[in-house]
Amino acid sequence: MNNIQIEQIDNLNNILNIDSDSKLEINFKSDSIEIFNNFVKQNEKQKYIYQIPKSKLNINLFEYNLDIYTFFIYCVESANKKINLSLYKNLIQPNNIWNICICSDIMFNLPFTLNQYIYIPINFISNCYDLSDSTKLIKTLIHEKIHVGQRFLEDSWEKFIDSFSTNWIKVSKDKNSSIYDSVIKIKQNNSYEFVTNPDTWYDFTYVYKNIDRLYYGQFIYDKRINNIKIIFFDITDNTDIKLVDNILDEEHPYELTAYKLSDLIA
User: pTM score, two decimals?
Assistant: First the structure.
Protein backbone atom coordinates (compact mmCIF):
# COMPACT_ATOMS: atom_id res chain seq x y z
CA MET A 1 0.00 0.00 0.00
CA ASN A 2 2.87 2.38 0.69
CA ASN A 3 4.10 2.02 -2.90
CA ILE A 4 1.07 3.66 -4.50
CA GLN A 5 2.14 6.31 -6.95
CA ILE A 6 -0.46 8.99 -7.55
CA GLU A 7 0.75 10.60 -10.75
CA GLN A 8 -1.78 13.39 -10.97
CA ILE A 9 -4.16 14.96 -8.50
CA ASP A 10 -6.73 17.45 -9.73
CA ASN A 11 -7.87 19.55 -6.75
CA LEU A 12 -8.18 16.33 -4.75
CA ASN A 13 -11.45 15.66 -6.56
CA ASN A 14 -10.19 13.49 -9.42
CA ILE A 15 -7.27 11.10 -9.10
CA LEU A 16 -6.04 10.17 -12.56
CA ASN A 17 -3.62 7.49 -13.66
CA ILE A 18 -2.91 5.99 -10.27
CA ASP A 19 -1.66 3.01 -12.21
CA SER A 20 -0.08 3.94 -15.54
CA ASP A 21 -0.92 0.51 -16.99
CA SER A 22 -4.63 0.48 -16.19
CA LYS A 23 -5.24 4.25 -16.52
CA LEU A 24 -7.36 4.04 -13.39
CA GLU A 25 -9.50 7.09 -12.80
CA ILE A 26 -11.26 7.83 -9.52
CA ASN A 27 -13.75 10.70 -9.49
CA PHE A 28 -14.88 12.08 -6.17
CA LYS A 29 -16.44 15.30 -7.47
CA SER A 30 -19.75 14.63 -9.17
CA ASP A 31 -23.46 15.32 -9.37
CA SER A 32 -24.07 12.48 -6.93
CA ILE A 33 -25.99 14.78 -4.56
CA GLU A 34 -28.48 15.71 -7.27
CA ILE A 35 -28.89 12.06 -8.25
CA PHE A 36 -29.50 10.97 -4.66
CA ASN A 37 -32.00 13.80 -4.12
CA ASN A 38 -33.85 12.68 -7.23
CA PHE A 39 -33.99 9.12 -5.89
CA VAL A 40 -35.45 10.38 -2.61
CA LYS A 41 -37.95 12.56 -4.49
CA GLN A 42 -39.11 9.54 -6.49
CA ASN A 43 -39.53 7.59 -3.24
CA GLU A 44 -41.02 10.39 -1.16
CA LYS A 45 -42.96 8.14 1.22
CA GLN A 46 -39.74 6.61 2.53
CA LYS A 47 -37.81 9.88 2.68
CA TYR A 48 -37.60 10.03 6.47
CA ILE A 49 -35.89 6.62 6.71
CA TYR A 50 -33.47 7.18 3.79
CA GLN A 51 -31.74 10.15 5.34
CA ILE A 52 -31.68 12.04 8.61
CA PRO A 53 -31.03 15.76 9.27
CA LYS A 54 -27.29 15.24 9.80
CA SER A 55 -26.83 13.33 6.53
CA LYS A 56 -23.78 14.26 4.45
CA LEU A 57 -22.79 13.65 0.84
CA ASN A 58 -19.51 14.19 -1.02
CA ILE A 59 -17.37 14.14 2.13
CA ASN A 60 -13.76 15.03 1.35
CA LEU A 61 -11.93 11.91 2.47
CA PHE A 62 -8.51 13.47 1.89
CA GLU A 63 -9.28 16.23 4.39
CA TYR A 64 -11.01 13.82 6.77
CA ASN A 65 -8.01 11.55 7.28
CA LEU A 66 -5.04 11.11 4.98
CA ASP A 67 -4.25 7.57 6.17
CA ILE A 68 -7.82 6.41 5.59
CA TYR A 69 -7.80 8.16 2.22
CA THR A 70 -4.62 6.30 1.19
CA PHE A 71 -6.13 3.03 2.41
CA PHE A 72 -9.27 3.66 0.38
CA ILE A 73 -7.32 4.48 -2.80
CA TYR A 74 -5.35 1.26 -2.36
CA CYS A 75 -8.60 -0.72 -2.06
CA VAL A 76 -10.09 0.86 -5.19
CA GLU A 77 -6.90 0.15 -7.11
CA SER A 78 -6.92 -3.47 -5.89
CA ALA A 79 -10.62 -3.92 -6.76
CA ASN A 80 -10.00 -2.51 -10.22
CA LYS A 81 -7.08 -4.87 -10.87
CA LYS A 82 -9.07 -7.89 -9.70
CA ILE A 83 -11.98 -6.99 -11.97
CA ASN A 84 -9.67 -6.57 -14.98
CA LEU A 85 -8.15 -9.99 -14.33
CA SER A 86 -11.51 -11.72 -13.92
CA LEU A 87 -13.57 -13.68 -16.43
CA TYR A 88 -16.44 -11.26 -15.88
CA LYS A 89 -14.71 -7.96 -16.65
CA ASN A 90 -16.84 -7.37 -19.77
CA LEU A 91 -19.95 -7.34 -17.58
CA ILE A 92 -18.49 -4.75 -15.19
CA GLN A 93 -18.32 -1.36 -16.86
CA PRO A 94 -17.23 1.39 -17.35
CA ASN A 95 -13.73 -0.02 -17.39
CA ASN A 96 -11.19 1.58 -15.00
CA ILE A 97 -13.48 4.49 -14.08
CA TRP A 98 -14.80 4.77 -10.54
CA ASN A 99 -17.27 7.48 -9.53
CA ILE A 100 -17.33 7.67 -5.75
CA CYS A 101 -19.45 9.58 -3.25
CA ILE A 102 -18.31 9.37 0.38
CA CYS A 103 -21.37 9.83 2.55
CA SER A 104 -22.76 9.59 6.05
CA ASP A 105 -26.15 8.78 7.58
CA ILE A 106 -28.03 7.95 4.40
CA MET A 107 -29.56 4.62 3.31
CA PHE A 108 -28.97 3.01 6.71
CA ASN A 109 -25.21 3.62 6.32
CA LEU A 110 -24.94 0.81 3.79
CA PRO A 111 -22.97 1.03 0.52
CA PHE A 112 -25.19 1.40 -2.55
CA THR A 113 -25.26 2.69 -6.11
CA LEU A 114 -27.32 5.10 -8.18
CA ASN A 115 -26.69 5.69 -11.86
CA GLN A 116 -22.89 5.42 -12.32
CA TYR A 117 -22.05 6.41 -8.74
CA ILE A 118 -20.97 4.27 -5.82
CA TYR A 119 -21.99 5.69 -2.43
CA ILE A 120 -19.75 4.51 0.40
CA PRO A 121 -20.44 5.47 4.04
CA ILE A 122 -17.42 6.99 5.71
CA ASN A 123 -17.93 4.88 8.84
CA PHE A 124 -17.83 1.73 6.69
CA ILE A 125 -14.45 2.77 5.26
CA SER A 126 -13.15 3.80 8.70
CA ASN A 127 -14.19 0.48 10.27
CA CYS A 128 -12.40 -1.47 7.54
CA TYR A 129 -9.33 0.69 8.09
CA ASP A 130 -9.41 0.29 11.89
CA LEU A 131 -9.64 -3.48 11.50
CA SER A 132 -7.01 -3.55 8.73
CA ASP A 133 -9.65 -5.36 6.68
CA SER A 134 -8.87 -4.34 3.12
CA THR A 135 -10.46 -7.57 1.85
CA LYS A 136 -13.92 -6.53 3.06
CA LEU A 137 -13.68 -3.10 1.46
CA ILE A 138 -12.27 -4.48 -1.81
CA LYS A 139 -15.06 -7.07 -2.04
CA THR A 140 -17.67 -4.38 -1.30
CA LEU A 141 -16.24 -2.11 -3.99
CA ILE A 142 -16.38 -4.95 -6.50
CA HIS A 143 -19.96 -5.74 -5.47
CA GLU A 144 -21.05 -2.14 -6.02
CA LYS A 145 -19.11 -1.84 -9.27
CA ILE A 146 -21.04 -4.88 -10.52
CA HIS A 147 -24.27 -2.98 -9.85
CA VAL A 148 -22.97 -0.08 -11.96
CA GLY A 149 -22.21 -2.56 -14.74
CA GLN A 150 -25.75 -3.92 -14.52
CA ARG A 151 -27.06 -0.45 -15.37
CA PHE A 152 -24.66 0.04 -18.28
CA LEU A 153 -25.24 -3.41 -19.77
CA GLU A 154 -28.85 -4.30 -19.01
CA ASP A 155 -29.29 -6.63 -22.02
CA SER A 156 -26.03 -8.48 -21.32
CA TRP A 157 -27.00 -8.97 -17.69
CA GLU A 158 -30.45 -10.26 -18.64
CA LYS A 159 -28.79 -12.91 -20.82
CA PHE A 160 -26.27 -13.69 -18.09
CA ILE A 161 -29.01 -14.22 -15.49
CA ASP A 162 -30.99 -16.41 -17.90
CA SER A 163 -27.86 -18.48 -18.55
CA PHE A 164 -27.43 -19.60 -14.93
CA SER A 165 -31.04 -19.77 -13.77
CA THR A 166 -34.42 -20.27 -15.40
CA ASN A 167 -36.15 -19.44 -12.12
CA TRP A 168 -35.93 -15.67 -12.42
CA ILE A 169 -38.59 -13.98 -14.57
CA LYS A 170 -38.17 -10.36 -15.64
CA VAL A 171 -41.41 -8.39 -15.37
CA SER A 172 -42.51 -4.85 -16.23
CA LYS A 173 -45.62 -3.07 -17.43
CA ASP A 174 -44.66 -4.18 -20.95
CA LYS A 175 -43.28 -7.65 -20.19
CA ASN A 176 -45.24 -10.26 -18.23
CA SER A 177 -47.54 -7.40 -17.29
CA SER A 178 -50.07 -9.54 -15.41
CA ILE A 179 -47.33 -10.64 -13.01
CA TYR A 180 -46.08 -7.07 -12.76
CA ASP A 181 -49.60 -6.00 -11.73
CA SER A 182 -49.26 -8.28 -8.69
CA VAL A 183 -46.01 -6.54 -7.74
CA ILE A 184 -47.68 -3.14 -8.00
CA LYS A 185 -50.56 -4.41 -5.89
CA ILE A 186 -48.10 -5.39 -3.15
CA LYS A 187 -46.39 -1.99 -3.22
CA GLN A 188 -49.74 -0.27 -2.77
CA ASN A 189 -50.28 -2.17 0.49
CA ASN A 190 -49.89 0.33 3.32
CA SER A 191 -49.41 -2.41 5.92
CA TYR A 192 -45.67 -2.37 5.27
CA GLU A 193 -43.02 0.32 5.08
CA PHE A 194 -41.47 -0.69 1.80
CA VAL A 195 -37.89 0.31 1.09
CA THR A 196 -36.58 0.74 -2.44
CA ASN A 197 -33.19 -0.86 -2.99
CA PRO A 198 -31.18 1.69 -5.02
CA ASP A 199 -29.12 -1.11 -6.57
CA THR A 200 -32.23 -2.63 -8.16
CA TRP A 201 -34.14 0.59 -8.88
CA TYR A 202 -35.41 0.13 -12.43
CA ASP A 203 -38.68 0.26 -14.37
CA PHE A 204 -38.71 -3.52 -14.18
CA THR A 205 -38.16 -6.14 -11.51
CA TYR A 206 -37.78 -9.89 -11.19
CA VAL A 207 -39.94 -12.56 -9.60
CA TYR A 208 -38.81 -16.04 -8.65
CA LYS A 209 -40.48 -19.17 -9.99
CA ASN A 210 -40.26 -22.35 -7.94
CA ILE A 211 -42.04 -25.26 -9.62
CA ASP A 212 -45.56 -23.84 -10.10
CA ARG A 213 -45.35 -20.95 -7.62
CA LEU A 214 -44.29 -17.33 -8.16
CA TYR A 215 -42.62 -15.26 -5.44
CA TYR A 216 -41.70 -11.61 -5.11
CA GLY A 217 -39.13 -10.34 -2.62
CA GLN A 218 -39.10 -6.83 -1.19
CA PHE A 219 -37.16 -4.85 1.43
CA ILE A 220 -39.14 -3.31 4.27
CA TYR A 221 -38.24 -1.15 7.22
CA ASP A 222 -38.93 -2.93 10.51
CA LYS A 223 -39.40 -0.46 13.36
CA ARG A 224 -38.96 -3.20 15.95
CA ILE A 225 -35.34 -3.73 14.96
CA ASN A 226 -34.81 -0.24 13.51
CA ASN A 227 -33.41 -1.79 10.37
CA ILE A 228 -34.34 -3.24 7.00
CA LYS A 229 -35.11 -6.83 6.11
CA ILE A 230 -36.38 -8.85 3.14
CA ILE A 231 -39.82 -10.41 3.01
CA PHE A 232 -41.38 -12.59 0.28
CA PHE A 233 -44.88 -12.82 -1.12
CA ASP A 234 -46.52 -15.67 -3.01
CA ILE A 235 -48.05 -13.91 -6.02
CA THR A 236 -49.15 -17.00 -7.95
CA ASP A 237 -52.78 -15.97 -7.56
CA ASN A 238 -53.29 -12.24 -8.03
CA THR A 239 -56.47 -12.40 -5.97
CA ASP A 240 -54.82 -14.17 -3.05
CA ILE A 241 -51.34 -12.70 -2.49
CA LYS A 242 -49.77 -14.16 0.65
CA LEU A 243 -46.79 -13.33 2.86
CA VAL A 244 -44.56 -16.42 3.08
CA ASP A 245 -41.37 -17.51 4.77
CA ASN A 246 -38.24 -16.26 3.02
CA ILE A 247 -37.31 -18.60 0.19
CA LEU A 248 -34.00 -16.92 -0.74
CA ASP A 249 -31.26 -14.86 0.87
CA GLU A 250 -31.62 -12.10 -1.74
CA GLU A 251 -34.71 -10.54 -3.27
CA HIS A 252 -33.32 -9.89 -6.75
CA PRO A 253 -30.93 -11.65 -9.16
CA TYR A 254 -28.86 -8.47 -9.43
CA GLU A 255 -28.06 -8.76 -5.73
CA LEU A 256 -27.56 -12.51 -5.91
CA THR A 257 -25.07 -12.20 -8.78
CA ALA A 258 -23.29 -9.22 -7.22
CA TYR A 259 -22.61 -11.24 -4.06
CA LYS A 260 -21.58 -14.39 -5.91
CA LEU A 261 -19.32 -12.68 -8.45
CA SER A 262 -17.67 -10.38 -5.91
CA ASP A 263 -16.82 -13.47 -3.84
CA LEU A 264 -15.27 -15.10 -6.91
CA ILE A 265 -13.38 -12.01 -8.09
CA ALA A 266 -12.08 -10.85 -4.71
Answer: 0.91
